[in-house]
Each structure stands twice: as structure tokens, then as C-alpha cells.
Structure to design on (664 residues):
């Protein structure tokens, strides 16, 4: 890690440091590329959007299969509807109770993974030489 | 039912608490920005409770249990979908929408697609969905007051309507944020505490099994309208006596009365089930009063965390209506015959625990919760309808315009609900979800994730999908039934109107590529760049 911009303020206590212009130029460029929407910045942003959308779609498939598959399952295999667990019919247990923690877990996973995507992106953009 | 002496005081306490918290907020509300989005200074915990309080309406508090009592396991998709809607909102909309910085849905349209005309169209849909959702709220209030106090239906509508309109006009959303958060916890308590006593009573009665609905005591039923009971027509004025243990006869207008079929899935067609799933999963993100809350988050990350908290709060709430519906099957089967199944939550404490002090106190608590449900949902809806009316139709968004708009926005559904009292609460709310899912959901999802969306494409998709859904709503509300297989397309339209909206939006956008807004890259950067970068 080279000299951060905060090191250039010129405080007397800082040790003397060589500044290579090329490094500063590269370090500033990714953020500027984004802000000024150069081709590089555009490609970076498209990558982030694609990653976030892919994450959202993957988790929608999890819910689509896990919850959305239930009506189909109940209709092609009626015995499942009559199966009881602790005296309660399975569909009641699945839809009345378990669906909610399932949705929350998927949501929790999304928040964690989406924030990770954003941290990765921020690190990529801010990375200096 | 004997009116409990505690009901009226309980409702008055809820009303006073609402007004008091509203007044506390009123002293803080000053500028237009304060009125509309509470100056974006609301913490995620408050915000999540407020969203939950606003969202859990009469349809959730009373309607879901009533539906379960009537139809059984198939309608569990309503509460699951009402909660899952927040997951869809979290995955596709929450953070980018907050970062867009728009106040309302029409703002988002203008910001993303730079079109004043699209903004007007979105305004029309916000107002339509808002009113469609407000009418059953006020009707539910009328019905509740009628059931628990014997007061007339019209008084209930007027009381809630005037109270809510005045609170919104005077305090704006700032006060409502606190009111809504308070009301979430009130609603949860009002369902959770009585259910503990109900389950204890059920346990004490050797866990009476759920079987064919039977009368638990000698009951006399007076027929008020001619009905078809078990196939035979019974004229009005007939008195029928049932003894304890007699099976509840099947009323023609109340389907699926028999014991076993209520327990197992398959009572409705797969198309209807998937249509319902699509409408509720995707409709939440298009409800104007839900979206407006996202602007009160400080940034995109907070918006995500708030949504996750809402998912937990709403999911916890929906565990209870199911229990009421199931216990209602055992203790209040006569509702299946009278058709007033929406009253099951209100009547259960009295029916199970008797009319002693405990039963009456818990009955009053439930009634207070129901009242809170009407107050909070209608004030949230009214705020968003008044918000778009004041900025786009009636004025330029000043505080005075907002107050005037609130009065107009409240008067129309009050008038409508005093005219039509025959609509089914949960069904109309479901239709509002279908309209939202077929109009704003594609607009938001494509607007946020696809650069290729154009203003013409968005307008065409909203008109095609939303228009088709609105037509289906009007046909259903008007009581017009299509023949054969077409009837399910009209009563549960989302499974075809949502794909229609998406398809039209994409195809027309591709055909009008020359109209792509030049600002699309800047907008996309703003929607998706992480908050930490502060670009």
C-alpha cells in the first residue's frame, strides 16, 4: 500500500516520502472512472449490477423451488397432504409455521451476500497500486 | 353476541394514544420534507415496526383468520405471500430505490425515465391502488364496530375516516411513523395474548379434535335472507333450532364446509394458487404506502436491513391468524353458516372463555387491535395518496396543499365504502395486490435492473398489465362472472397480467430504443453504487 491521500496534507510530523505521480493517477482513476462514466467505469458498474442481479435471481430460485414448488407437490402427491407430524397435517406445518423462518433465512443470506458484493466492489475501486 | 363493556373504553384508549403520539410528532413536523418522509431521520428499528404496523391491515388482522376458517389450508398462501412480498422487495428493490432519492413512485418514474407523462400515469395508479385498498379498510372498521358494539356500520366508517384524515392532515408522516410503530406492537399483543388463553382452554378441553363442524351448544338461528341449506331453499324469517352436537349445515354461498377437505390442499385450481402467489409475492413492492417508507432510511444499506427486520416482524405476526382460524373451526362454527367469518378473531375470546371478565377483557383487547389495524393501514395509505395528489394533481407540494389533498384523499373512499357494503375485505385487498404486481412491480424491477427500459415501453407495460388487472377487478367487484375456465382468469388475474406487463414493457422498449434517456448511466450509477463510495 503506497501513500494515501491523507499523507499529503503536509503535517510536520510525517516522515519525508517520495510521491510517484503515476501511482496517484492510477489510484484516483477507478473512482473517477465511475463518476465520469468512462468505458472502464461503465464496465465496473455493469459487473456490480450483474453480480447483484445474479444473487437476487439465485435466491428467488431457492424460494421459487422451496415454496413455489409446494402447490405442485401437493397436487401430484396427495398423500403428502394427509401425512401428519405431531398430529398436524404437513401442509399446515410447512405453510403455517416453517415458511416464515425460511423466508427470513433467505433474506438474511441476501443481505450478507449483497453487502459482501458491495465491499468487494468498493475494495476494487479504491485499490491503489 | 353480548357487547363487552370493555370494548368501547379499549377503542377510546387506542384512539387517544394514536392522537397523543400524533400530537407529539406534530410539534416536530415543520417543513414539507418533514411531512412527507419524516426528514429521513427515523432509525431502522422504528422504521421496521412502522412498516409492519402500516402493512398489517384489516385484511391481515381479521381477514386471514376468517379465510382460513372458511377455506382451510389453501388460503395459507395469503399470509405466506403477504410476508414473502418483503423478500421480493428486499432482493430487487429496497437498496437501489432508496439510493434513487425519490420521494414517491411517480418521482421514481420521472427520475429514471425523464418523462412527465409517465409520472402522471404512475400518479393515477398510486391513487387507484390506494383507494382500492382504503375502501375495504373503512368497511372493515364499520363491520368491526357493528359486531362488537352494535353501532351502525356507517358510524364506524365515518369515525375511522374522519379520525385518520384529520391525523394525516395535521401531522403528516412524522407523527405517523411513531403511531405506526406503536400500532405494530399493539396488534401483535392483541393477537398473541388472547391466543395463549385460547390454547390453554383448548388444552383443558382434552384438545378437542378438528372434525366436521358441529354446534357446541343448543343454538337457534334466525334466517334473515332466503338461503340454500344442504340443497333446500329456506325462506327468510325461518327459525332453525340446533342441538349441541348437530353438524353445521352447508350454506350454498360458503364453499368447502366438510371436515377432511378443509384439512388437505387442493380445494382450488393450481392456476388460482399460483396466481395468488404471484400477486402477493410481487404486489407488495408496488404498494404505494409501503414504498414511501423506504425514503425514511438514511441509505441503501439501512433500507436492506429495515426490510429484513420487517420480514421478521411480519412473519412473527402471521403465525397467529392461522391459530385463530383453526380454533374458530372448533369453537365458532356457526360463522360458517352466517357467512360472517371475518368476525372470527373478534368473537373467539367470548366463545371459548365465556362472557366472564377474562373473556370480555380479551375480547376488548382484540377489538382494540382490530381498530389499530384500520387506523394504521388507512393512515399510511392516505399519506401516500395525499402525497402524490398534493405534488402532482392538486398543488405544488406545500404543506397547505398536502392538508387539502389529505381531505380529498380521505373523502372519496369514505363515500365509496358508505355506498358499497357487500365487498369481501380480503378479496378486494388481494385485487389491490394483483393491480400493483401488474403495474409497479415490472416498472420497478426493469427500471432498476435493465438499462434498456424506455418511457414509452414502461407506459405501455403499465397500461397493458395494470389495465388488464383493473378491468378484472372492476368485473369481479361488479359481480360479472365469466363462463367456465375464464372465471378464474378474472377472479385471480395475476398469473397472466404480470407476465403480460413484463413482456409488453420489454418489447415496446426494444422497439423504441431511440427514446432511451441520455441519463441512464448516471441513474444506474446512483442506484447501484455502494453507499460507502459516496460518489
Amino acid at each position: 500500500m503506497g501513500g494515501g491521500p491523507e499523507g499529503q496534507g503536509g503535517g510536520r510530523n510525517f516522515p519525508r516520502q517520495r510521491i510517484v505521480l503515476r501511482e496517484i493517477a492510477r489510484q484516483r482513476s477507478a473512482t473517477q472512472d465511475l463518476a465520469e462514466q468512462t468505458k472502464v467505469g461503465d464496465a465496473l458498474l455493469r459487473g456490480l449490477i450483474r453480480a447483484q442481479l445474479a444473487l437476487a435471481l439465485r435466491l428467488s430460485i431457492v424460494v421459487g423451488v422451496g415454496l413455489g414448488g409446494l402447490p405442485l407437490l401437493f397436487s401430484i402427491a396427495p398423500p403428502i397432504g394427509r401425512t401428519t407430524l405431531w398430529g398436524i397435517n404437513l401442509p399446515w406445518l410447512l405453510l403455517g409455521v416453517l415458511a416464515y423462518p425460511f423466508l427470513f433465512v433467505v433474506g438474511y443470506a441476501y443481505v450478507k451476500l449483497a453487502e459482501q458484493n458491495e465491499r468487494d466492489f468498493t475494495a476494487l475501486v479504491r485499490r491503489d497500486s | 353476541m353480548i357487547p363487552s363493556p370493555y370494548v368501547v373504553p379499549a377503542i377510546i384508549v387506542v384512539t387517544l394514544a394514536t392522537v397523543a403520539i400524533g400530537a407529539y410528532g406534530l410539534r416536530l413536523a415543520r417543513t414539507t420534507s418533514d411531512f412527507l418522509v419524516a426528514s429521513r431521520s427515523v432509525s431502522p428499528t422504528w422504521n421496521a415496526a412502522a412498516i409492519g404496523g402500516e402493512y398489517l391491515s384489516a385484511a391481515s388482522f381479521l381477514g386471514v383468520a376468517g379465510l382460513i376458517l372458511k377455506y382451510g389450508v389453501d388460503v395459507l398462501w395469503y399470509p405466506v405471500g403477504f410476508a414473502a412480498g418483503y423478500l421480493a422487495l428486499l432482493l430487487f428493490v429496497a437498496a437501489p430505490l432508496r439510493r434513487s432519492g425519490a420521494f414517491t413512485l411517480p418521482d421514481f418514474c420521472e427520475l429514471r425515465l425523464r418523462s412527465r407523462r409517465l409520472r402522471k400515469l404512475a400518479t393515477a395508479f398510486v391513487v387507484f391502488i390506494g383507494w382500492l385498498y382504503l375502501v375495504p379498510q373503512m368497511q372493515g372498521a364499520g363491520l368491526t364496530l357493528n359486531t362488537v358494539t352494535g353501532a351502525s356500520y356507517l358510524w364506524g366508517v365515518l369515525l375511522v375516516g374522519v379520525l385518520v384524515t384529520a391525523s394525516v392532515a395535521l401531522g403528516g408522516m412524522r407523527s405517523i411513523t411513531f403511531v405506526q410503530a406503536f400500532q405494530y406492537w399493539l396488534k401483535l399483543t392483541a393477537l398473541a395474548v388472547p391466543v395463549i388463553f385460547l390454547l390453554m382452554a383448548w388444552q383443558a378441553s382434552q384438545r378437542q379434535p378438528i372434525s366436521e363442524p358441529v354446534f357446541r351448544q343448543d343454538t337457534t338461528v334466525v334466517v334473515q335472507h332466503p338461503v340454500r341449506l344442504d340443497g333446500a331453499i329456506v325462506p327468510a324469517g325461518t327459525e332453525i333450532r340446533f342441538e349441541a352436537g348437530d353438524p353445521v349445515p352447508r350454506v350454498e354461498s360458503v364453499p368447502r364446509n366438510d371436515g377432511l377437505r378443509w384439512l388437505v390442499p387442493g380445494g382450488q385450481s393450481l392456476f388460482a394458487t399460483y396466481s395468488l402467489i404471484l400477486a402477493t409475492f410481487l404486489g407488495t413492492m408496488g404498494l404505494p404506502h409501503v414504498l414511501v417508507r423506504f425514503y425514511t432510511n438514511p441509505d441503501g444499506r439501512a433500507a436492506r436491513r429495515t426490510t429484513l427486520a420487517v420480514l421478521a416482524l411480519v412473519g412473527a405476526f402471521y403465525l397467529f391468524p392461522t391459530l385463530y382460524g383453526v380454533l374458530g373451526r372448533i369453537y365458532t362454527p356457526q360463522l360458517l353458516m352466517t357467512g360472517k367469518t371475518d368476525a372470527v378473531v373478534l368473537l373467539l375470546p367470548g366463545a371459548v372463555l365465556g362472557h366472564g371478565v377474562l373473556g370480555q377483557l380479551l375480547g376488548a383487547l382484540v377489538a382494540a387491535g382490530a381498530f389499530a389495524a384500520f387506523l394504521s393501514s388507512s393512515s399510511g395509505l392516505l399519506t401516500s395518496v395525499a402525497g402524490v395528489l398534493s405534488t402532482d394533481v392538486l398543488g405544488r407540494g406545500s404543506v397547505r396543499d398536502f392538508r387539502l389533498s389529505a381531505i380529498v384523499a380521505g373523502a372519496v373512499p369514505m363515500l365509496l365504502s358508505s355506498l358499497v357494503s357487500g365487498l369481501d375485505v380480503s378479496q378486494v385487498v388481494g385485487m389491490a395486490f394483483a393491480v400493483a404486481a401488474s403495474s409497479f412491480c415490472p416498472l420497478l424491477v426493469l427500471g432498476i435492473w435493465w438499462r434498456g427500459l424506455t418511457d414509452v415501453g414502461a407506459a405501455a407495460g403499465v397500461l397493458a398489465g395494470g389495465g388488464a388487472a383493473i378491468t378484472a377487478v372492476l368485473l369481479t367487484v361488479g359481480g360479472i362472472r365469466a363462463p367456465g375456465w375464464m372465471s378464474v382468469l378474472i377472479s385471480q388475474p395475476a398469473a397472466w397480467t404480470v407476465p403480460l406487463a413484463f413482456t409488453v414493457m420489454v418489447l415496446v422498449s426494444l422497439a423504441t430504443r431511440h427514446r432511451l434517456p441520455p441519463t441512464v448511466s448516471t441513474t444506474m450509477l446512483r442506484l447501484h453504487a455502494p453507499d460507502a463510495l459516496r460518489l
About this structure: Residues 20 and 101 of chain A are 54 Å apart (CA to CA). Residues 90-126 of chain A form the longest helix (37 residues). The radius of gyration of chain A is 26 Å. Chain A touches chain B through 47 residues (CB under 8 Å).
